[in-house]
Amino acid sequence: MTRHGGDGVAGGIVPPARGAGFLSRRSFLVGSAAGFGALGLAGCATSDALMLAEAAKAYGPIPDEKFPIPAVNIAKLDPKFFRRTVRYESPEAPGTIVVDPGNYYVYRIEGAGSATRYGANVGRNGFLWHGDAYVGRKSEWATWTPPKEMIQRQPEAAAYAHGMPGGLDNPLGARTLHLYQNGAYTLYTIYASSDPDTIGKGITSGCVGLLSQDMIHLYARTPIKTKVVVLPA
């Protein structure tokens, strides 16, 4: 694996501000809204309406979670990042996860030249890496602990040095896939984000984020030992 600067399990993912005492996600994830205009052709308009209706269903609320997940405001998500099945030729076996940070996509190989594609956020400049890994551990509503390197850079994170319990404010979100190499935890994850504004951007210290609804969809289909390929950006 080639790395450039990554510093931990959530080196670039931090709690969003929901009230006093919580750190601002944007204060750490700094470095589009997409409007939907009326189309002149009735056929295109019908197709767009169907696509939006399907997206609204896919990204609707999930009330039966331990911490109920709200619906995604899909007006803030570029339609190219909606979850969909696409043609994708790959030599990898079905089930393999392929991260394409240059285009902000995560693919789950389905076989027969197709894949499920998810929009993603990825590592910012200086924190990109590539190589092969595997899912060594899975967790739901995981505790988030900032690594010491992050605390050194951003002292506010020290408030969570002993861990932040799972919940909607926790930056790991509802589901986490922990990436390993040769039996060792890389400190990188594929995690759940509740912020559609982050999708299609480089904001983390090497971790990869999917919207919560997409992450739950991928998580359910990903067993331990699943191969993960991170392509060069």
From TrEMBL:
<dbReference type="GO" id="GO:0071555">
    <property type="term" value="P:cell wall organization"/>
</dbReference>
<keyword id="KW-0961">Cell wall biogenesis/degradation</keyword>
<keyword id="KW-0808">Transferase</keyword>
<keyword id="KW-0573">Peptidoglycan synthesis</keyword>
<keyword id="KW-0378">Hydrolase</keyword>
<comment type="pathway">
    <text>Cell wall biogenesis; peptidoglycan biosynthesis.</text>
</comment>
<dbReference type="GO" id="GO:0071972">
    <property type="term" value="F:peptidoglycan L,D-transpeptidase activity"/>
</dbReference>
<feature type="domain" description="L,D-TPase catalytic">
    <location>
        <begin position="95"/>
        <end position="231"/>
    </location>
</feature>
<dbReference type="InterPro" id="IPR050979">
    <property type="entry name" value="LD-transpeptidase"/>
</dbReference>
<dbReference type="GO" id="GO:0008360">
    <property type="term" value="P:regulation of cell shape"/>
</dbReference>
<dbReference type="InterPro" id="IPR019546">
    <property type="entry name" value="TAT_signal_bac_arc"/>
</dbReference>
<dbReference type="GO" id="GO:0016757">
    <property type="term" value="F:glycosyltransferase activity"/>
</dbReference>
<protein>
    <submittedName>
        <fullName>L,D-transpeptidase</fullName>
    </submittedName>
</protein>
<keyword id="KW-0328">Glycosyltransferase</keyword>
<dbReference type="InterPro" id="IPR006311">
    <property type="entry name" value="TAT_signal"/>
</dbReference>
<dbReference type="GO" id="GO:0005576">
    <property type="term" value="C:extracellular region"/>
</dbReference>
<dbReference type="Pfam" id="PF03734">
    <property type="entry name" value="YkuD"/>
</dbReference>
<keyword id="KW-0133">Cell shape</keyword>
<comment type="similarity">
    <text>Belongs to the YkuD family.</text>
</comment>
<dbReference type="GO" id="GO:0018104">
    <property type="term" value="P:peptidoglycan-protein cross-linking"/>
</dbReference>
<dbReference type="InterPro" id="IPR005490">
    <property type="entry name" value="LD_TPept_cat_dom"/>
</dbReference>
<dbReference type="InterPro" id="IPR038063">
    <property type="entry name" value="Transpep_catalytic_dom"/>
</dbReference>
